[in-house]
Amino acid sequence: MALEGKPVADRILKEVKEGVEELGFSPGLAIVRVGDDPASKVYVSSKIKRAEEAGIKGTEHHLPETATEAELLELVHQLNIDSSVHGFIVQLPLPPQINAEKVLEFIYPEKDVDGLHPLNLGKLVAGDPHFVPATPLGVMEMLSHYKIETAGKNAVVVGRSNMVGKPMSALLLNANATVETCHSRTKDLAEHTRRAEILVVAVGKPKLITGEMVREGAAVIDVGINRIEGKLAGDVDFETVSKKARVSPVPGGVGKLTVACLMKNVLKAAQEKK
Ligand code: NDP
After folding, report:
1. Could you identify which of 186, 217, 223, 229 might form a hypothetical disulfide with 182, taking C-beta atoms 3.0 to 4.6 angstroms apart as the criterion?
2. Are 26 and 58 spatial neighbours (Cβ–Cβ below 8 Å)?
3. Are residues 93 and 146 in the same domain?
């Protein structure tokens, strides 16, 4: 059985909408986009659309590809002090003249709904999470929705980015799984992935994980998004892996959950400001 994202995302968005109605005001989400990355443009419009559906006021701020770091920091400062903005994100990647770490550190942690500020990442690792990056949060929602137990399970995360792999490993560890984190320097990846009862793959390489690399009966969450001849594909070879394991499809899996969990974080930021 495929681990579909839609029923999970629909439930989360419904809960967010109800939470917004209870608040009595419309939370403000600002999204900063710098440059002309086509994928970022699509992601940002889908986030704004979902925000509006949930009763959240989404606003895009677009800076040109040539924007300087100082210009972006000034915009971040304005959003930090704007009381109508409850949470905001700076869409990554940023053009090379801008130091992304510096920008992320400049965001007030209480408005950091992407959970990428070092304070929020640190709280997660310390086992006291506040804002957690939306994609790994979505994976945890998926595991819980499909009643996939984490405690005592062998979990393997392939990928160690700050946005997905590292927070994913921390969340699974906090949920009492025994966690291994693999990356590009891991020797014999298959030896690790075959041990996984829960396997989360966030690399960005199509068909990296094939049937013979997966344990029978495992839950496999494919975070990867690759564009091949105009079509989306994940990191997992769905055809061979789905014969022995439950797999989240791409598209239709984690992607929908990322946007829903971002809205969950915006609601949380607004509830805390009430
Ligand atoms: P990054 O490029 O930041 O990280 C990729 C990770 O994969 C790195 O840790 C890298 O290792 C590791 N890696 C690369 N090659 C291999 C290999 N052959 N074997 C094992 N590990 C390898 O990507 P992100 O974490 O930002 O994103 C990962 C994927 O998830 C992408 O396809 C992205 O598009 C997708 N994504 C999907 C989202 C969604 O909503 N569904 C949201 C965010 C991302 P090392 O650290 O050693 O370089």
Report:
1. 186
2. no
3. no
Q: What is the pTM of this model?
A: 0.97
94/172 same-domain check: no
Residues with CB under 6 A from ligand 1: 135, 158-161, 163-165, 182-186, 189, 202-205, 208, 223-226, 254-255, 258
Residue 110 Cα to ligand 1 midpoint, Å, equals: 27
Tell me how far CA of residue 98 lies from CA of 102, 104, 105, 111, in angstroms: 8, 11, 13, 21
Which of 73, 108, 143 is the C-terminal boundary of a domain? 108
Active site residue 97: no
**In the annotation, is 91 catalytic?**
yes
Which residue range forms the structural domain that includes residue 168?
Answer: 134-255
Number of domains in the chain: 2
Ligand 1 centre from 12 Cα, in Å?
Answer: 25
Q: Give the C-alpha distances (Å, rounded to integers) separating 258 from 83, 223, 263.
A: 25, 10, 9
178-228, pLDDT tens digit by residue? 999 999 999 999 999 999 999 999 999 999 999 999 999 999 999 999 999
